[in-house]
């Protein structure tokens, strides 16, 4: 038989243990309901924000771009992400820069906003600012650039020399072969993608200058039906330019693989502006 005082001790321990369990359970349930309420509130808030702003699907925006409709696509991501990959003819501006140019924008035009995902806080801030300033034809891209790429829509990439995908987009020509084509009066359309200053110092005879960072916007100046050769000092910029033009739908592009440095070493003719 267990002594009475030991029974009492066991009862006290049991009651104490039970109280600890009850307190712990209460604390857990409180946190659970608070978190559930917060999640529900966030979901309701997100739903309200989603209903507040218009959106456009990936397929619909792709159709508008293909049809050359007059619209603006503003990419709100950081400059490095934009440079690495972006939607054709989109413009990369920070929220602050966008707010500065709003007074100069035509309220009758269409404006779309792109971020990595769907309706992000940055997009909400910008779209609200546009709405407050009287713009009505505005929308965000559903799913952002992530969904755009997942649905295999075209993007303009910077051109990674170590990427097998980017390498597959480019054809090459060497200095000797380009010199022969020029001598045989079969001169292709040569684009020098270096800076205007470098181009003015020396360049291949007959070449025109379109700096690498301006190729996408000035691609409409490039004639169709001709062989296009891009050149720079060492071939890297020419490769990157060829990738960008390929991504923009111009396929008859060649990069001068050994660059103008080799062209000069061989003593081939140069022009000076």
CA-CA gap between termini: 113 Å
Largest sheet: 5 strands, parallel
Task: Assign the structural class, choosing from mainly alpha, mainly beta, alpha/beta, alpha+beta, or little secondary structure.
Answer: alpha/beta
Return the CATH topology of the largest domain. Answer: Oxidized Rhodanese, domain 1
Characterise the protein shown here.
The protein has 273 residues and is α/β, with parallel strands linked by helices. It folds into 2 domains: 103 residues, Rhodanese-like domain (Oxidized Rhodanese, domain 1, 3-Layer(aba) Sandwich); 108 residues, Oxidized Rhodanese, domain 1 (3-Layer(aba) Sandwich), CATH 3.40.250. A 5-stranded parallel β-sheet has the order 1-6-5-2-4. Strands 8-13-12-9-11 form a 5-stranded parallel β-sheet. A two-stranded antiparallel ribbon has the order 3-7. β12, α10 and β13 form a beta-alpha-beta unit. The longest helix is centred in the first third of the chain and has 49 residues.
Topology, element by element:
Layout: H1 4-52, E1 55-56, H2 58-66, E2 71-75, H3 79-84, E3 85-87, E4 91-92, H4 95-101, E5 110-114, H5 121-132, E6 138-141, H6 144-150, E7 155-157, H7 164-167, E8 171-173, H8 175-183, E9 189-192, H9 196-201, E10 203-204, E11 208-209, E12 228-231, H10 236-247, E13 253-256, H11 259-265, E14 270-271
Parallel strand pairs: 1-6, 2-4, 2-5, 5-6, 8-13, 9-11, 9-12, 12-13
Antiparallel strand pairs: 3-7, 10-14
